Amino acid sequence: MTELRPETRTVHLPQPPLNGSRPIAVPLYQTSGFVFDDPAVFADGMNRPDGAFVYGRLSNPTVRALEEAVAGLEGGAGAVATGSGMGAINAVFLGLLQPGDHLIAQKALYGGTAAVINDLVARFGMEVTYVPEDDPEALRAAVRPSTKLVYLETIANPVTQVADLPGMCAAAREAGLVSVVDNTFASPVLCRPIEHGADVVVHSTTKYLSGHADVLGGIAVFADDGLYRKVWKFSTHLGATADPFAAWLTLRGIQTLPLRMERHCANARELAVRLDAHPAVAAVHWPGLPTHPSYALAAKLLPDFGGVFSFDLVGGRAAGERFMSSVRLALLAPSLGGVETLIMQPSTTSHKSLTAEELVRHGIEEGTVRVAVGIEHVEDLWADFAQALA
Ligand SMILES: *Cc1c(COP(=O)(O)O)cnc(C)c1O
């Protein structure tokens, strides 16, 4: 070939080979697609998750590194990373359910998940029965011929009920149902639902896994290879794909996940205990407190109790609002799992659309304040909370 002209050279950039070394960190493959020498390898990669990388909506090496990391942490056969937690939840629902199917879900659900289920019911003729998260008998009683799936959350928002994963997943298995567990609040450091019988684990990796409030992402992990391939195939059409840069940031977060979880849990314990003893506080909801209804179950299931708790102030809604506007260090913000401590009032924000009856179902009071504890020094956090309570 003749000497290439600048217009061509600038398009076809060199890619030097690594010649005997490799990067310490997982490289960011910021490319939408891949180049082939062999057309047969190209064709094969289109059809399965473990063929050659072809196109970013199907798979990408950085995204695959994240999928393998989380599948490994959760003890799954495979994982599908998505652009957000809701992307993973929708990929699982839409990939596994048909119009007319019945599903069983626990009563207290993440707001976005509750909205998706309402939508499946309204638009696709699906049916749902809500049961307590710790009542396998109620689950058994709810099973119908059309039931396909059971949906649970390891630790629910915002009053932190803990699901009886062994009991509920066993009941689901007996009835031939797929059990799906949202493990976002626990992270695989505190709980690996597949070890307790779950078929699918979903995460909003936006939270603890990435850990720095700088990225959105989700992932679905599958105990079974067949289920994994089925949802992978569907997800390639859904288009809720993870972006490589988001996956790369999440991988960096995961490297410090156990260290961060240790501090989140320790800080939550200290604040929960001190708030519980404070005269302005009516109740603290953290599963590590013996007064929490889930305490016995949580103590059996989890090595520690997570970094999210909520509390009710004696003065109800007005006192909650005063607390929210009096903190100086804690930030008024949604989400959780990052290094900064975030607070919010569920009844006026995340759960605003709920009726009074639904609020009761979730165990939320009008004045409930939810705290997603960060990794700051606990005495600085307590000083902030104490002055806000005063
Ligand atoms: C945040 C969250 C989700 C949704 O995840 P996104 O990343 O915001 O789409 C689902 N489940 C739980 C428990 C969450 O906290």
From TrEMBL:
Protein source organism: Planomonospora venezuelensis
Single GO MF descriptor: cystathionine gamma-lyase activity
Entry's Gene Ontology cellular component terms: cytoplasm
Entries under PANTHER family matching the protein: CYSTATHIONINE GAMMA-LYASE-RELATED, TRANS-SULFURATION ENZYME FAMILY MEMBER
Family from the record: Belongs to the trans-sulfuration enzymes family.
The protein's required cofactors: pyridoxal 5'-phosphate
Positions of modified residues (N6-(pyridoxal phosphate)lysine): 207
The reaction(s) this protein catalyses: L-homocysteine + H2O = 2-oxobutanoate + hydrogen sulfide + NH4(+) + H(+); L-methionine + H2O = methanethiol + 2-oxobutanoate + NH4(+)
EC number(s) on file: 4.4.1.2
Signal peptide extent: none
Annotated protein name in UniProt: homocysteine desulfhydrase
Swiss-Prot/TrEMBL keywords: Lyase, Pyridoxal phosphate
The keyword ATP-binding appears for this protein: no
GO terms classed as biological process: cysteine biosynthetic process via cystathionine; transsulfuration
